[in-house]
Amino acid sequence: MDLTLLAYAAIVLVAVATPGPTVLLALSNGSRHGVTLAGYGIAGAALSDLVLIGAVSLGLGALLATSQVWFDVLKWLGVAYLCYLGIRILRQSASPQTIVAQDVARSDGLTRSILLRSFLVAVTNPKGYLFFTAFLPQFVDPFAPLLAQYAVLTLVFVAIDVAVMGAYAVLGASTARRMRAGAQRWIERLCGSSFLLLALGLALYRKSVS
C-alpha cells in the first residue's frame, strides 16, 4: 500500500504541476495581488478538489462518461468561463495594480472573487471529473474499506495541489516584485492567453467512446 500511495503521489505531482487553469490563476493572482490574497484562490481550488472527488464517488463522473448531453452542457459552461477569465485577465493586464498585504482587510469582495474564480474554473471542467473517474479506482483496493482509502487519496491530492499552487503564487509574486509592472503585465498576458487556448482545447475536446 505504501508503494502504491507513493506512486499515486508521484503521478499526482506531475499532473498538478503541469500548467492548468488553477495553477495559472495562482500565478496570476500571486503576481497581481501577492501571496496572501492568492491563498484565497488556492483555498478555492482545494475546495474544488473535494467537490470533484466527492462528485465522482457519487457517480457524476460515470454519468458524464456515458451521457453526451450532460458532458456537452458542462463542457460549454467550462469553455465560456475559461474565455471569460482569459479576457478579464488580459484586460486587467492593461492597468496593473497590485494589492499589497495590508489591503487584505479592506478587500472582502476581492477575496471572495478570487476564491470563487479558482473554484468555478475547476468544477465547470468535465475533464476533471473524467480524470478522477479513470484515475482514482486504480489505487483503490475493492476488498478494503473504501471510505478510508478515498479519504487518504483525497488528502494526498489536496496537499500536493495546495503545495504546487503555493509555489506558483510565490513565483508570480517574486517575479512581479523583482521586475515590477513590466513583469506583472507579461505574466498576466501569458496567463490570459493561456486561458483562451485552454478554452479552445476544451471546445475541441471529445471524450473517448468505449
Task: Please provide a written account of the structure.
With 210 residues, the chain is an all-alpha fold. The protein has one domain. The protein contains 8 helices and no strands. The chain has helices at 2-17, 21-33, 35-57, 60-66, 68-92, 108-123, 126-135, 146-204. Helix 1 runs parallel beside helix 8. The longest helix is centred in the C-terminal third of the chain and has 59 residues, at 146-204. The two termini are 30 Å apart.
Order of helices and strands: HHHHHHHH
First CA to last CA: what distance? Answer: 30 Å
Taking all Cα atoms into account, the compactness measure Rg is: 18 Å
Described by the principal axes of the CA atoms, the overall outline is: globular
Largest sheet: none
Helix content: over 70%
Pick out its properties.
210 residues; mainly alpha
